[in-house]
TrEMBL record:
Lineage, broadest ranks: Bacteria, Fusobacteriati, Fusobacteriota, Fusobacteriia, Fusobacteriales
Keyword Transferase applies: yes
Keyword annotations from UniProtKB, A to Z: Aminotransferase, Pyridoxal phosphate, Transferase
Gene Ontology molecular function, alphabetical: transaminase activity
GO biological process, one term: carboxylic acid biosynthetic process
Name of the protein in its database record: Aminotransferase class IV
Length: 238
């Protein structure tokens, strides 16, 4: 693999997608490609990735279950693979979240795209892991809930699902879109005091799918029948 030095390498002027591959098939490939192309157009990066190219790459791999990362900059298109870190995770125990002291800037275009300026997310998640948490959650500059380092958040009150609107400063994830496609979801600005009012919480991203949250830094949630239903039904969306 050869990397050409360009603004993507020097300044983080690049975008990427991470796609779950199961049995040699890229899950939600069309949705990932649409989001990737939207970001390429926004940042005026003249590159194009086709589903056919992705399928050709996957067909050449001996391994059939992994995480595929596609990184694109002005002069580079990189296909990288690694083990899906959620493949063998115990989905029954529930995940634990903590809060970051770093604020999301909802006025920045960068938070709405999956750019290669991503290390802040990884650094904050690393700090959370050192505190025995699974994921870290960001507030924005107005004190509203935004997103996790690598995930979107949903909350449940009774049968009603809630999630922060994109305008709070978050990446609209592919799995977030799937939840909103299959279930009625109210986009709601969520403040710290609101967290005590919810019955349940879960995370989404393309690699993890849906993960039940049992704790958000001292606030504990139930694994309700609604969440069990969503966990069971997600396999049918692929």
């Amino acid at each position: 693999m050869k990397i050409i030095v360009d603004d993507g390498f020097l300044f983080g002027a690049g975008v990427f997608e991470t796609i779950r591959v199961e049995d040699g098939r890229a899950i939600f490939c069309e949705e990932h490609l649409r989001r990737l192309q939207k970001s390429l157009d926004f940042f005026d990066i003249s590159q194009n990735i086709s589903k056919k190219e992705i399928q050709a790459y996957l067909a050449a791999q001996e391994e059939k279950n992994f995480a595929l990362k596609i990184v694109v900059s002005a002069r580079n298109i990189l296909y990288l693979k690694r083990e899906n870190p959620y493949l063998y995770q115990n989905k029954d125990r529930g995940v634990r979240l903590c809060f970051s002291k770093v604020l999301r800037n909802s006025s920045s275009a960068m938070v709405y795209h999956k750019t290669t300026q991503y290390y802040e997310n990884l650094l904050e998640k690393k700090k959370a892991k050192q505190r025995q948490y699974d994921e870290v959650v960001f507030w924005n500059e107005r004190g509203e809930l935004a997103e996790g380092a690598v995930s979107n958040l949903f909350f449940l009150k009774g049968d009603q699902l809630y999630t922060p609107p994109v305008s709070c400063g978050l990446l609209p994830g592919i799995m977030r879109g799937k939840i909103m496609e299959y279930y009625p979801v109210e986009e709601k600005r969520i403040l710290p005091e609101d967290l005590l009012d919810f019955d349940a919480c879960f995370l989404t991203n393309s690699l993890m799918g849906v993960l039940w949250v049992r704790e958000v830094e001292g606030i504990f949630y139930q694994k309700t029948k609604k969440i069990e239903k969503i966990l069971a039904e997600q396999e049918a969306w692929k």
